[in-house]
Amino acid sequence: MEKKIVESEGQRQLNHRPNPIPPRLAREGHTAMDPDSELAFDLPPFLRLYKSGRVHRLMGTDYVPAGVDPATGVASKDVLVDPRTGLSARLYVCCPSASTRRPILFYVHGGAFVVESAFSPTYHAFLNNVVARADVVAVSVEYRRAPEDPLPAAYDDAFAALRWVASGAGGEAWLAERGDFDRVFLAGDSAGANIAHNILVRTLADPLGIIMIAGLALIHPHFCGKEAVGAEPTDPAFREWLETLWGFACGWSSGIEDPRVDPFRDEAALRALRALPCRRVLVSVTEKDGFRERGKAYYERLRASGWEGEAELVETEGEKHVYFLFNPNCEKATAEMARLVAFLTRDS
Q: What is the pTM of this model?
């Protein structure tokens, strides 16, 4: 799907900013005078942005409708969370469900803040499997993406959806009748893990009310920073790619020293880790992931911060970033799923 956007001030800055990625497809055979075909920014493998404001996403654009999944028996439906912004979510329940109230999984999809969707086949299949195996009630958030809506739009949408859940979800029966509001879990992969962390931190200043977050699952989290940590790659091209990815997502409003992407860059960020308002944290990383070291550092600094909860770090050997989404039936993906299910279904 291709979209057009109205050029904002951030977009004007983006269009006139020197491009750190060579515009290999700058003309694509069209005349230079056509702003709808002249490339303004190339962000492989995710998208291309044209000078007219047209966004051509290269992945994660397919849509699958809600309904009953024949493979798992899980039912899903879409709900409008906020009519003012168009914020929506896809809900999932087992069909039939257990008679007791089930944990609520609040899931935030990945995609570098710029691609993918709660309604894509990739995430629809993943949530169907999680719900079938864990028998949880799931809320998968359809947040706004950059560059049409730069960060913090995604953070604001995810937090608004979490507050909607915490306030009773407008009486939505699947949550009100089947969900256990004393067992709410936040989870996400890649950029979604980043968002999940940040909205949990936001509850320190803006409490949700009566519910408490039981756990936070960060799957291959998208965190980075100005200086390398651990064995993080120091290759200039990789560091530049990290800065470009974050800069593009937030409309060039900040660099990767931003605490939203570097959750332990300063004392204030470390205080937030120390006060993280949940009982358990699961951090999952993979051997061949450029974000691996930052995920490990998150776990280590969380434990060293004085936080009183229970943290677990799991590393999968020989795999790349979010491999389990694209090869869900392999042995390691099955083990990854089992860990998440166990995390969600533990009694304490």
A: 0.90
